Amino acid sequence: MITIKEIAAQLDVSTTTVSNVIHGKTKEVSPETIKKVQKFLEEVEYVPNISARNLAQNESKIIGVVLKSRPDRYISLLQDPFVCEMISGLEDAIRSAGYYMMVYISDDIAEIISHISTWNADGLILFCMLDDDGQRVTEKYRKPVVFMDTYSEEMLKNYVNIGLDDRQGACDAVRYLIKCGHRKIAFLSDNQVGVDLERFRGYRMALKEAGIEYSDRNFLQLHTEKEEMDRSLHRAARKARNYTAVFCCSDLFAVQLINALTDQGVRVPEDISVIGFDDNMYGRFHRPALTTVHQDAGYRGRRAAELLIDILKGNQPEKNRIVMKPHLVIRDTVKVIQ
Amino acid sequence: MITIKEIAAQLDVSTTTVSNVIHGKTKEVSPETIKKVQKFLEEVEYVPNISARNLAQNESKIIGVVLKSRPDRYISLLQDPFVCEMISGLEDAIRSAGYYMMVYISDDIAEIISHISTWNADGLILFCMLDDDGQRVTEKYRKPVVFMDTYSEEMLKNYVNIGLDDRQGACDAVRYLIKCGHRKIAFLSDNQVGVDLERFRGYRMALKEAGIEYSDRNFLQLHTEKEEMDRSLHRAARKARNYTAVFCCSDLFAVQLINALTDQGVRVPEDISVIGFDDNMYGRFHRPALTTVHQDAGYRGRRAAELLIDILKGNQPEKNRIVMKPHLVIRDTVKVIQ
DNA sequence: TTGTACGCGTTATCAA
DNA sequence: TTGATAACGCGTACAA
Known about the structure:
homodimer, 3 domains, DNA-binding, alpha/beta, 45% helix, Rossmann fold
């Protein structure tokens, strides 16, 4: 790897001149010198050393993508199609803007913070932050931060968040079920915080509108720990048979629920209707194709990255909360009854 | 961010002493000093500046994961479950070993090389390298490299490769089809190079053993460009109906073929049998569950990272070629005929 | 046992 | 228009 110093020596100019040419500060350098240096730069395929640049400018061009993992889960974060699609969008936008993406996955916020500081990331995209995770990060890290899907009031007040109208999405889905004649509708998820809590509220809202009573038993809770998942799924499927429809908090859950039902000899949608959330390939590749709430994870990732980069460039975002609108995609897993 | 210099000043010791304590060179420092410094380090939550360290030691602790993308494809690399599972394994092993993963995705090898040099990655894991891609990288990049799934003779001679016995896997699958009474067996893929070529050879091998003649028409080629995929899939499904079984080069293809067939009113496995390759969630979540050739992408990623890190530590690998063994997983998409 | 001083590659300041 | 030089934070050879 050739360095600026070396180039300067070989061309018999100063490092300043070389650096100026590299950065297009052309009015400071004579045309002949520019040509000479540029030609040489191309010949030797000069590539800047980022570490040196970081040190000199205290700027790393790194955008940290932070995901808090749950090691006990039946699939890892990078196996979740929703997460991957989002990261794919982030990667695309970050690279196009000349930044570098560094993915930090850990279940330990302290470790994450230490990585971020070590690499001196210029900005952060935070995802899967629950409880006080977001707070812990922003306490230590004082550069721009964009959240995805936080529902912490504290964070929403002070930071940019790219969210989704989860409540509306879920409400629309359940309204649709009701319109199709369903009144015994269960809600399936593995938790009741953050995004899922909002979806749960949407579900409750739609029930209430229609004057359908809610009982705690309607909440079908999945235990997504490695050893529990299968059993939990079958238990949920068994319980689901007391309902005519199930709203699932993700396509992944929906597809797995349908499989569990199928394995128990229950047909979807003939015997029971199922609706998902996300609209990713799992639902699309399923047969019958999954009726679900569409959100574009890739686009949302791209927007988050663009917004962060805009902030890094010194622009103030117009508003702190961006809420994308999901929409229902009707396919083949909901049956009209009566 | 506090620096060593600052710490030294505050404790009234030298930077050398602080540095020595940080690196556990305890025999050079008096016990009291060690205690004093360690306590202070913890208090201020000292985090080293990686850029400075890189510069000083010419070592980055970065392992570059290089994927050559095909932007025209109907899904991006990070949407492919096989790729994600592999990256998930890589990430796990790289982080556990105290290294950092930087993912480089691009369709432009020159751009990839420039990124790698810029960040001074200590080692590389190369994936999806076709034609002379591998050669172009290794010409410029003179540090340890581990390939995954290369079939370039040139690279295999000189570099470590973590491969899979693709030929054997495909052969076993087709043998199984033949054992089930199938003789009209098609081969479905989107290309005929690298990994897929090997699988094709395994397919041919099994046919030959059984004295079944091969015709070029047996090769069902998918066009996986964005605008072509759907039409191509349906064309393939139509052609597939001339056969009693189809061997597909990936679970993703298999599932989509089954869907296309289903959409045409053809039942799997009643009317036609389908077998996949990979054994990922797409096949497992499908109903009927996909009969397929199992490989553990995550494990393979982990092994690749471990191997590379071992080389970085100065150990010579025992052998250049590691070939993992896939095995057939019989589920529900192959019917015994006659 | 501790401290000084230099080099890593780049950028920025300021003087020539 | 150009160049010398300091600074960024760290690790280390060598001196004390």
